[in-house]
Amino acid sequence: MANTILVGAQWGDEGKGKIIDVLTENVEVVVRSQGGNNAGHTVYVGPKKYVLHLVPSGILRSKKKCVIGNGVVLDPVSLVGELDGLEKLGISVKGKLFISETAHIVLPYHRELDALRETGKGKKKIGTTKRGIGPTYGDKAARVGIRMHELIDTERFAAKLKIRLKENNLILKAHGVKPLSYKKVLADYVKAAARLKPFVTNTVVMLHQEMSRGSNMLFEGAQGTFLDIDHGTYPYVTSSNTTSGGACTGSGVAPNRIDSVVGVMKAYTTRVGEGPMPTQNDEISDLLHGMGREFGATTGRARRCGWFDAVLTRYAAIVNGIDELAVTNVDGLDTLDVIKVCIGYRYGKQRFDYVPSDVEVLSKVEPIYAEFPGWKTSTEKAKTWKDLPKNARDYLKAIAELTGAKLKIVSVGPAREQTMIL
Ligand code: GDP
Ligand code: IMO
Ligand code: MG
Fold first, then answer.
1. Could you tell me if the CB of 329 is within 6 A of ligand 1?
2. What is the CA radius of gyration of the chain?
3. N or C: which end of the chain has fewer CB within 10 A?
4. Which atom of ligand 1 is nearest to the CA of 330?
5. Is 41 considered catalytic here?
6. Residue ranges of domains in the chain
7. Other CB atoms within 10 Å distance of the CB of residue 22
8. Does the domain spanning 3-101+200-262 belong to CATH 3.40.50.970?
9. pLDDT for 294-315, tens place per residue?
10. Which residue among 37, 131, 272, 359 is best mutated to probe the pocket of ligand 2, counting the most ligand atoms within 8 A of its Cβ?
11. Nearest by Cα to 70 from 21, 33, 19
């Protein structure tokens, strides 16, 4: 399957983890290139449920190499916890995990600042995961971040941490928050560093060696297109480039080495956190939450749910260069009589066929809907395209056409087997 970038085409949680796990069968290497443990990727292997935050979802298959690239922001203590959790579930990471020496690390003051900024914003808060993601990328851009190669060099880390803590404790004190103990942070991070050190390497060189050996690579996007720092609903976004370009800068693999881009989208829309969502709808939210679905994999928050928004996905197709689509959670619509799809936005006398850049505008648009008849049959057992009810096929064909990319994968349940590759 050559080198493929997989991205979320909506606001995250599209089912990327599940699709990555399915596609990993045909690749040798899986790479995370942005985001951090704000991500939560759910994969079921038989009855076992795994939620991955920093480790690429490819880890669940044996003999696959998994890379945490330079563009990721990595919380070392949290990663150690994730590795311990995986080992408890019988998943070994030895010889399979590679961590970039230039990935920036999340420190406790980043998490504190994330929370403080959110509180300070009051009603205008972003609704972050409070994992310190924004402040860590902020320090990276301000050139005061600490990277993995420094973390695993205890003397160097100790010296740099002292300087960084001095500045950040002043900020915390100004906010009335207890300053962090240098001794405690140092001890916690040195302990985590010792555990992670064997995995740390120059992943750019490693990935290029894999490529020259003919290995196929899958780039596992985190978050989704409309959480992208440049192309998303700013400021209600995350702090990395979640779109396909981010996979190149975040891994050191050049654009001309990429063969295709897969966009993952739900058959409806969800969003967790604040910010505009034109097709949000109580009926569909209640329906999905009533089924015990659509609760965040990282924070447990109820996701906001709404109709499929083709204006969004069409924009995502352009920005990412999506070649092929994976549509998940088709089964979530099984019981509906009528299914709506947003095909444009009305804003006063203006009509938008693309996503307006200004969130003030996006928060006021009225969706223009097309209606599709529901199929009112369970799709969960469908194994092939032909097993799907005709109305479901027509709906899927329509949303792919409106998005402007080829429909390639359809998912009708969380399990590996509930996936059809067309
Ligand atoms: P990710 O962040 O994009 O990997 O997605 P999450 O794991 O956060 O959320 C997707 C949720 O949908 C998870 O609970 C998956 O197990 C589940 N899921 C994925 N595809 C399907 C599907 O086709 N049907 C159903 N019922 N659940 C699905
Ligand atoms: P995966 O990879 C859904 C959202 C947060 C918040 C905004 C900023 O599982 O799809 P941050 O903590 O990144 O500063 O929060 O982004 N967010 C996600 N929403 N899925 C995710 O990841 C997300 N990661 C961040 O809810 O609105
Ligand atoms: Mg998720």
1. yes
2. 21
3. C
4. 23
5. yes
6. 3-101+200-262, 104-196, 265-421
7. 20
8. no
9. 999 889 999 999 999 999 999 9
10. 272
11. 33
